[in-house]
Write a structure and sequence with these properties.
- By secondary structure, the protein is α+β, with helices and mostly antiparallel strands.
- It has one domain: Metalloproteases ("zincins"), catalytic domain (Zincin-like), CATH 3.30.2010.
- A three-stranded mixed sheet has the order 1-3-2, with helices on one face. It has a two-stranded antiparallel ribbon with strand order 4-5.
- It starts with a helix and ends in a 17-residue tail after the last strand.
Length: about 130
């Protein structure tokens, strides 16, 4: 996958969300090359509510995984910008509501829009904040 394809997919997901919500919101997508920032194999992304940072692992991800991750992180961004305390499952629920497509978890426990388990597997961290 070309280096910029992941970013184009993410930006497309943001445009879709804005269209469905009827408003724009601030959110950018950045490749994070910070050493050891994503220690677990399933760690691909994080956000502060305005920037979504992706591990270089995103360069090898399928379009379905990129869309699942982007949608989940966009939901975190929206919830954080509204100062809504939420958990990981809340982000999945909002992403599913906006995009009208289920969020699945693949064999590595990473969000995807293709086949997998749902809802979020109980053994995964359910960070609330």
């Amino acid at each position: 996958m070309r280096d910029n394809k992941w970013k184009r997919i993410c930006e497309e997901q943001k445009r879709i969300a804005e269209r469905k919500l009827g408003r724009t919101f601030e959110c950018s997508f950045v490749l994070d090359t910070t050493p050891d920032a994503y220690p677990e194999p399933r760690n691909f992304a994080r956000t502060d509510g305005y920037v979504v940072w992706f591990s270089p692992k995103i360069l090898r991800a399928s379009p379905q995984r990129i869309k699942g991750l982007a949608r989940h992180e966009i939901a975190h961004v929206l919830l954080m910008q509204e100062d809504i305390t939420h958990c990981e499952q809340d982000a999945d629920d909002l992403a599913e509501h906006i995009f009208r497509v289920p969020i699945y978890y693949d064999g590595m426990g990473v969000q995807t829009i293709s086949r997998g388990s749902r809802p979020r597997p109980a053994h995964l961290p359910e960070d609330c904040g």
